[in-house]
Amino acid sequence: MNSPFTSGHATLVEEKATTTYRGEEFDYTRRYYRCDDTGIAFTDDETDAWGLEQIYSQYREKYGIPAPAEIKAIREQYGLSATTMSKILGIGDNQYGLYENGEMPTKNIGRMIATIKNADVFRMYVDMAKNQLKGKEYEKIVKILEAWSCRLSFLVDNENYASDWWFVMAPINSEYKEDTVSRWNRVPKQQSFIMA
């Protein structure tokens, strides 16, 4: 890196640092450059983002706030736009998209977003937002959610027991298109019982 002060060489420095974010202190590794000629320290966008990401990651982990990629994945699992998600959750029209792009939600909104990974929880938000959704938008979303889960009972003859299970269909996306394994996740809803 060349120094913006002398056009001479600048050395990358890493050091432990502490900063305050949203009223709390966080330790992180700070990066900056020091001009070899003048000794003046400076940063660029990359070193600033590197430090900020460490702080954000600690804050997200501490409070259970999903990362931007996870926030986007939650929306994509339902096949909805960021604007529609904002409407359903009752946040600003563009807010969900901003969270997907790295803006840090409040603790409460971050936790709310984390809970809507569960389709049943998301359905409650959809029902509460019914009057804010336009035209047939509500019915479309309900159909998406209904396609997400179905209840199946089965009897396994060779084991001689019956069980009640919930099967949840995984979202169809590029991650699953090449998957040759079943697209169903088996989650026990209740205990199995032995048949007489």
Describe the structure.
With 196 residues, the chain is an alpha+beta fold. Among the domains are: 54 residues; 46 residues. Helix content is 40%, strand content 26%. The protein is elongated. The chain starts with 9 loop residues before the first strand and ends with a strand.
Compact overview of the structure:
By secondary structure, this protein is α+β, with helices and mostly antiparallel strands. The chain has helices at 45-63, 68-78, 82-89, 95-100, 107-115, 119-128, 137-148, 174-177, and strands spanning 10-21, 24-35, 41-42, 149-156, 161-169, 184-188, 193-194. Helix 6 packs antiparallel against helix 7 (137-148).
What does the secondary structure layout of this molecule look like, with pairings?
Blueprint (H helix, E strand, L loop, with lengths): L9 E12 L2 E12 L5 E2 L2 H19 L4 H11 L3 H8 L5 H6 L6 H9 L3 H10 L8 H12 E8 L4 E9 L4 H4 L6 E5 L4 E2 L2
Antiparallel strand pairs: 1-2, 2-3, 4-5, 5-6, 5-7
Which key phrases capture this entry?
196 residues; disordered C terminus; alpha+beta; 8 helices; four-stranded antiparallel beta sheet; elongated; three-stranded antiparallel beta sheet
End-to-end Cα distance, whole Å, is 77 Å
Number of helices: 8
Query: Structural class given helices, strands, pairing?
Result: alpha+beta
User: What gyration radius follows from the Cα positions, in whole Å?
Assistant: 24 Å
Helical coverage, percent range: 40-55%
Mean pLDDT comes to: 81
The total of beta strands comes to: 7
**Unreliable stretches, pLDDT < 50, 5 or more residues?**
150-196
